[in-house]
Amino acid sequence: MTFEDFPHEASSQLPGVSFLAMRQVIFRQAERSSLRIIEDVDQRLTVETAHGLIGLRSCEGSDATAYVAAADEHWLFMMKNAVIRQMQHLMPDTASDMRWSSGPQAGSLPPNFAFLEVRDVAPLGAVFLRLTLKCEGLDTHGDHSIHFRFVLPPEGETPEWPTVAPNGSTKWPDGPGAPHKPVYTTRYIDQGAGTLVTDVFIHDGGRITTWAQTLMNGGRNRRVVGLVGPAGGGLLHAQRVLMAADETGFPAAARLLENMEPGVTGMVLLEAENGADCAYPIEVPEGITLCWLSRSKGESLGQSTEALLPEYEGATLWFAGERAQAASLREKARAAGWDKSQMRISGFWTQ
Ligand SMILES: Cc1cc2nc3c(=O)[nH]c(=O)nc-3n(C[C@H](O)[C@H](O)[C@H](O)COP(=O)(O)OP(=O)(O)OC[C@H]3O[C@@H](n4cnc5c(N)ncnc54)[C@H](O)[C@@H]3O)c2cc1C
Questions:
Q1: Centroid of ligand 1 to alpha carbon of 283 (angstroms)
Q2: How is domain 113-231 classified at the architecture level of CATH?
Q3: Does the pLDDT of residue 24 top 80, yes or no?
Q4: How far is the CA of 349 from the centre of ligand 1 (A)?
Q5: CATH no. of 240-349
Q6: Cα torsion at 86, 91, 97, 98 (round to 10°)?
Q7: Using CA atoms, how far apart are residues 56 and 45, in angstroms rounded to an integer?
Q8: Residue 238: strand, helix, or coil
Q9: pLDDT tens string 304-341
Q10: Which ligand 1 atom sits closest to the C-alpha of 232?
Q11: What is the pLDDT of residue 223?
Q12: For ligand 1, atom 21, which residue shows the shortest CA distance?
């Protein structure tokens, strides 16, 4: 990747922040996140991330300036959000004073927000609902980033949607109409039809579950809700994998598995209440062994994955499940010498 790949740019002064101090912070962050530094000369520091460039600039004697670049306005907005999130931890006052050289107007809907209309809800296997959603602006969704957020207003309240804050970040409403905004996986996209398909695991107390079931049973309210995305990681490029997921990760695992590189080998563990009886449709490449685990028989996704770490040393580890299990696996894998670049371990839900 070079600067030409990211023609959309913006910068914002960081009042009172010195270039040298901030340079150290970015260096540490880049190291922690295994990001490549592509430029570090003459008061210019630039780091490459999965979706664009983040950097720091300075002129003699002036405050530091934050810099972001991306392939389009959508990802540029995401890069600004990433910078502001970091700044909020380090220097909250500076973060709220930031003003970008270009970008959407404060108060407008964020560029990564779209309204979606539910076109269809149908059962999928024993424990999922498949939703087909009609949505504008799906051209930014693709294999590089396969998740999104539902933006679901509470039942019976006037909906409140996110807006662009003066510092260029996303401002989420916090009034009575504030939306629920869980992350889901895009299973399929039909760019021609402008539709996105997502699979919802049916679980007790789930607000998305209740909403989708109500629509399936003929409910008319909240058929149009919001989406923010795309978000999160993309396809897995690896020759040997150890993958593990509970139901929340089945749609992501299914999408990754059907787009694997030729010749890939490894193992995928899938945990459901009654294992394969959940009948979630999933196709696995020839070189990968699929193993179903049943919670009802006391089988545990986290423990089973941890037990396989020695056998799969050197492979790519992908895990999507309960947050505490993810944290435990991350710790065990690190202790066993797995490198960060070999692991994509995520908590998809919290017990
Ligand atoms: C990157 C990413 C991708 C995801 N993709 C998908 C997807 O494609 N399909 C999907 O179904 N989920 C997916 N999830 C998980 C989903 O976001 C969470 O399960 C979320 O909590 C669902 O919101 P809700 O409105 O159903 O439940 P909420 O209203 O947020 O939660 C209600 C209660 O349900 C509990 N709960 C949440 N998830 C589960 C669960 N799996 N089992 C038992 N109890 C649960 C919560 O702890 C809470 O007590 C994904 C998560 C991430 C981070």
A1: 23
A2: Beta Barrel (2.40)
A3: yes
A4: 5
A5: 3.40.50.80
A6: -30
A7: 5
A8: coil
A9: 999 999 999 999 999 999 999 999 999 999 999 999 88
A10: 1
A11: 94
A12: 349
